[in-house]
Amino acid sequence: SQLVAVSAFYIDRTETTVANFKKFHPSYNEKPYTNGKPCPQCPAMGITWHQAQRYCQWAGKRLPTETEWEVAARGNSAFIWPWGDKHRPKHANTFGNDDGFLFMAPVASFSKGASPFGVMDMAGNVWEWVIGEGEGLKIAKGGGWTSYENQSKISFRNKVDPNLKNPTFGFRCAANHIG
């Protein structure tokens, strides 16, 4: 594998929550995705790439690049998943009920699934948009609650229309510096 130089950056420890997204978009409603129940600590869901980018800019941040996202997910390791090389169903909210959640989970529900840097939910819960090259399809990383284990690998690239509004798509932000 080749080494890539990455400038220092900050990344949100968790996926952007419903509560935080509502500060930016007060009319956002998670209830269509949560069986009608409020879930302020769930990840914002059904978010397009453009909405994610606008939120991050509003928050004084930006979407992470794909390389930054992968660094945050694996640290200095060559791990396949944030916690290691063996898929562990209870370490991430992916397809099925083995992890205790059939649908989305509140962010940071899987402490055993944290990356070496302590970043949460880099595998599963919601797909996360990253900055993509050029026009056209964008990349989402990490898999969501309907993803199979191979889709939740750090290296997996989901190429999708940036206007896609899918319940299993959310995001987190990054920044070059704090403040």
Structural class: little secondary structure
Spatial shape: globular
The number of helices is 3
Q: List the secondary-structure elements in sequence, H or E.
A: EHHHEEEEE
Strand order of the largest sheet: 4-3-2-5
Taking Cα atoms only, what radius of gyration do you get, to the nearest Å? 15 Å
How would you characterize the overall build of this protein?
The protein is largely without helices or strands and 179 residues long. It has three helices and six strands. It has helices at 18-24, 49-58, 66-74; strands spanning 10-11, 127-129, 138-141, 158-160, 169-170, 174-175. The strands form two sheets. It has a four-stranded mixed beta sheet with strand order 4-3-2-5, with no helix packed on it. It has a two-stranded antiparallel sheet with strand order 1-6. The relative contact order is 0.23.
